[in-house]
Amino acid sequence: MEPTVVVNAKKSTLSEADALALAAGVDHIYSAKGKRVVHLDLRKSKPGTAELKALLLGPSGNLRAPALRKGRTLIIGFEEATYRELL
């Protein structure tokens, strides 16, 4: 897999509004925190803004890194098994 866009999260942060806009363009969100991975199927459920923000944003209020978008799937955070399964 070759990335089409690579952004350094330390130099170019995505704000809350940017992160929510990014989430609006996908069907699946996988958010990893440690070994716990939360999967949201946005075609079946419509989570509230607070739930999305909890999955997407870090303590700074910006999009958590690493963040990877593949087609209509957004992966936030890193959990090796999830990456292997989805990529």
Describe what you observe in this structure.
The protein is an alpha+beta fold and 87 residues long. It has one domain (16-86). It is built from three helices and four strands. It has helices at 16-24, 49-56, 80-86, and strands at residues 28-33, 36-41, 67-70, 73-76. The chain has a four-stranded mixed beta sheet, with no helix packed on it. A hairpin with a 2-residue loop joins strand 1 (28-33) and strand 2. Helix 1 (16-24) packs across helix 2 (49-56). The model has no long low-confidence stretch (mean pLDDT 89).
Number of strands: 4
If you average the pLDDT, what whole number results? 89
Shape: globular
The value of Rg in angstroms is 12 Å
Spell out the helices and strands N to C. HEEHEEH
How widely separated are the two ends? 8 Å
Number of domains: 1
**Major beta sheet, specifics?**
4 strands, mixed
H/I helix tally: 3
Largest sheet strand order:
2-1-4-3
| Secondary-structure-derived class | alpha+beta
SS strand fraction: 15-25%
- Residues in helix, %: 25-40%
